[in-house]
Write a structure and sequence with these properties.
Elements lengths: L3 H33 L4 H4 L2 H23 L6 H28 L2 E6 L4 E5 L24 E5 L5 H12 L11 E3 L4 H7 L1 E2 H7 L4 H10 L7 E7 L4 E7 L5 E5 L5
Helix pairs in contact: 1-3, 3-4
């Protein structure tokens, strides 16, 4: 029979490993949710679910393996080797998990002629990267940036881009069409609609719309809106009616 001390040592070692793992998970969460998937992208791009799967498996398995292998009866060299292997395996799993989250992260919120669309790193066709405008960063690590699609040069370019979109390459994912958002402010304002009309369309959500406006210190009469397409859902973007500045978001499908 195993002694009480035997299990006490194992549980203590596993508990220490769990505490360290939780600390590492907290640091990883700060990176993921404060930088890569800030609000609202953690909701519409699936960042929360993906991160929780990765971290939960990593945090649970590491301490469980330590609980299994820790035994003071082992020679110190062998015990140290076993623990080092466990830590290295756990770090490798965490690094792979974070890499997976990074590849799926949102990199741009793009104005796509009559809507906004969230573009993720995995969405961007590598073969078009050579046509990326020099003033645009393709895969920012500091969180999603705001971009717009430039007007088509001619009907032929529009037809080719539309055909590619039908084949699965969204217009907003094409680096050759990207341009800085300020260049499209007037086009944004031309197609945006008053938030007052949104309240009329969705009378049941009028109170929520007013609350969303109040959170940013604005009246709904001073705002316009456009729909936003994410990986998981369609939301609404609230904009300043004069500058087209993106002010806030609301989980309402306004298409």
């Amino acid at each position: 029979m195993f002694s009480t001390l035997f299990w006490k040592d194992r549980l203590r070692a596993s508990g220490i490993h769990l505490a360290i793992s939780l600390g590492m998970a907290a640091l990883a969460a700060m990176l993921v949710f404060a930088v890569w998937y800030p609000y609202p992208y953690r909701e519409i791009s699936g960042g929360r679910e993906l991160f929780l799967i990765v971290v939960t498996v990593d945090v649970i398995l590491g301490p469980l393996i330590t609980l299994t292998v820790f035994n003071r009866a082992k020679p110190k060299v062998k015990l140290r080797r076993d623990l080092v292997v466990v830590v290295l395996v756990q770090l490798a799993a965490l690094a792979y998990g974070l890499w997976t989250v990074a590849v799926a992260r949102p990199v741009h919120l793009v104005f796509e002629y009559d809507r906004f669309r969230v573009v993720h790193a995995v969405d961007v066709p590598p073969e078009l990267m050579g046509r990326l405008p020099p003033e645009v960063e393709a895969f920012p690590l500091r969180g999603p940036t705001l971009l717009a699609l430039r007007p088509f040069h001619d009907g032929n370019e529009q037809a080719q881009a539309t055909l590619a979109a039908l084949e699965g390459v969204q217009l907003s994912s094409r680096p050759d069409l990207w341009q800085p958002y300020p260049l499209a402010r007037q086009r944004v304002l031309d197609v945006a609609k008053p938030v007052v009309s949104l309240k009329q369309r969705f009378a049941d959500h009028a109170g929520e719309i007013d609350v969303a406006a109040a959170r940013i210190g604005r009246q709904s009469e001073t705002l316009v809106y456009l729909p936003m397409v994410g990986r998981k859902a369609a939301w609404t973007v609230f904009l300043d009616s004069s500058s087209a500045e993106v002010l806030t978001f609301m989980p309402l499908d306004s298409f």
